[in-house]
């Protein structure tokens, strides 16, 4: 999979998550995520696999068109950091594949916490050694659930799959993204998480 | 509208929100919420208006079936507080109507902050004078975006509306709920919001 060539992608090499498997189980129940969703995500991975760059074009287009979002990839003075945008893009693409194909086990949970921290003052900018603003505001992390879930539908529909299965894949994608943002909110909310 | 008969419903009577209209504007852009969504929500209000109790039956059924959610309406020892569940139900029903029909102005923003705080140690339990756990964990607030958005579709589809309009109403509902949860995360994340 060429994973080792993705700059700053440290799946399998990070500390364990403070979130337990039991807490993950309860989150799964809260978003109604079950074995059918896992299966649907595997199929979604097949459909999206060849379109990852196109999906990223849409998302990066959205970020680029919104100064309040581009700011998080920019210097504190507001100059976009191209190398930062590019390096994160590679990891974002891998995240699409991971969301569809990885088992949601301890290694996954550990990397969820890593992604969370990379959005906060704890770790933002460090992986890429860049000078940028210190954190991504939590409200935008939550808000982007909408574009990141709505925009995959067209790509899911490009496969040979019947409409009912596009629906199943799309719902599974929504559940997973919402659950991941819930996990990523942990270092923001700490004791109230 | 009989609003004054809803126990603990204080719309229009709470302090201004610390969130500015400009911040709200940027959140709207982040979830792609525009004038067509406002219009779609007005239509959704017409369709959902007569079904509010049925919608609440589904959501309360979900909460009741999940001990980790029912716990937030229970004593610290785990005994569900019936009066609490019932009083909040009235306000929850009104929230469905408000989400569809209210302008998202300063009064709305102020009540958003009030709803937020009522999920946190700041204000939970106080409105109803009950003894319950001190806060709703942020992760469940985010996770419930899924059931609260997925389950309205059947109700929206019960109107006389063509499928394309059901889609438009449903997307507007999703955007609004995600944006509201983003607003409600403020007292949880404070400086990182
Ligand atoms: C649902 C919403 C979001 C998803 C799914 C998401 C996903 C990701 C992923 C997968 C990564 C790379 C993780 C890794 O290092 O392996 C990442 C990093 C990053 N994201 Fe997000 N993100 C979201 C919201 C946002 C928002 C709203 C912003 C603000 C514009 C943002 C800015 C960033 C930045 C700046 C990084 C690099 C962090 C670093 O310095 O390592 N993200 N995001
Ligand atoms: C998208 C998710 C959620 C929505 C839309 C939502 C909506 C609401 C609304 C509209 C109210 C009444 C506000 C008022 O007082 O006027 C409320 C209160 C409440 N909600 Fe939520 N809620 C969500 C998530 C949760 C979760 C996950 C729980 C945990 C089971 C929860 C537990 C409560 C409780 C206990 C109250 C009463 C708070 C008090 O003491 O005043 N909510 N919620």
Q: Would you identify the CATH architecture of the domain at 22-72 and 88-119 and 138-188 in chain A? A: Orthogonal Bundle
Low-pLDDT ranges of chain A? none
| CATH class label of the domain at 22-72 and 88-119 and 138-188 in chain A | Mainly Alpha
Portion in helices of chain A: 55-70%
Multimeric status of the protein: homodimer
CATH topology of the domain at 22-72 and 88-119 and 138-188 in chain A: Globin-like
- List how many beta strands of chain A DSSP finds: 0
Structure annotation, total helices of chain A: 11
* Elements of chain A, N to C (H/E): HHHHHHHHHHH
Q: What general outline of chain A do the C-alpha atoms trace?
A: globular
- The CATH superfamily name of the domain at 22-72 and 88-119 and 138-188 in chain A is Globins
Class by SSE composition of chain A: mainly alpha
What is the first-to-last residue Cα distance of chain A? 34 Å
Structure report:
Two copies of one chain form a homodimer. The longest helix of chain A has 22 residues, at 163-184. Chain A is built from eleven helices and no strands. Chain A has a domain at 22-72 and 88-119 and 138-188: Globin-like. The mean pLDDT of chain A is 96. Chain A is mainly α and 193 residues long. Chain A binds chain B through residues 23, 26-27, 29-32, 66, 68-69, 120-121, 135, 137-140, 142-147, 150, 171, 174-175, 178-179, 181-183, 185-186, 188-189, 192-193, and chain B through 23, 26-27, 29-32, 66, 68-69, 120-121, 135, 137-140, 142-147, 150, 171, 174-175, 178-179, 181-183, 185-186, 188-189, 192-193. One protoporphyrin IX containing FE binds at residues 8-9, 63, 69, 72-73, 88, 91-92, 95, 115, 118-119, 124-125, 127-128, 136, 140-141, 144-145, 148, 177, 181 of chain B.
């Amino acid at each position: 999979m060429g994973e080792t060539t993705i700059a700053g992608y440290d799946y399998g090499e990070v500390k364990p998550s403070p979130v337990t498997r039991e807490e993950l189980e309860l989150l799964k129940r809260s978003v109604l995520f079950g074995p059918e969703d896992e299966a649907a995500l595997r199929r979604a991975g097949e459909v999206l696999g060849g379109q990852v760059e196109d999906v990223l074009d849409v998302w990066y287009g959205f970020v680029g068109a919104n100064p309040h979002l581009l700011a998080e990839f920019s210097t504190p003075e507001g100059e976009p950091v191209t190398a930062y945008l590019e390096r994160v893009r590679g990891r974002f693409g891998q995240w699409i594949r991971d969301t569809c194909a990885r088992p949601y086990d301890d290694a996954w949970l550990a990397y969820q916490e890593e992604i969370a921290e990379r959005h906060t003052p704890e770790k933002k900018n460090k992986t890429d050694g860049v000078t940028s603003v210190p954190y991504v505001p939590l409200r935008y992390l939550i808000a982007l659930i909408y574009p990141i879930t709505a925009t995959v539908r067209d790509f899911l529909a490009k496969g040979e799959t019947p409409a009912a299965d596009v629906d199943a894949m799309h719902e599974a994608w929504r559940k997973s993204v919402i659950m991941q943002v819930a996990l990523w909110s942990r270092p923001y909310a700490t004791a109230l998480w």
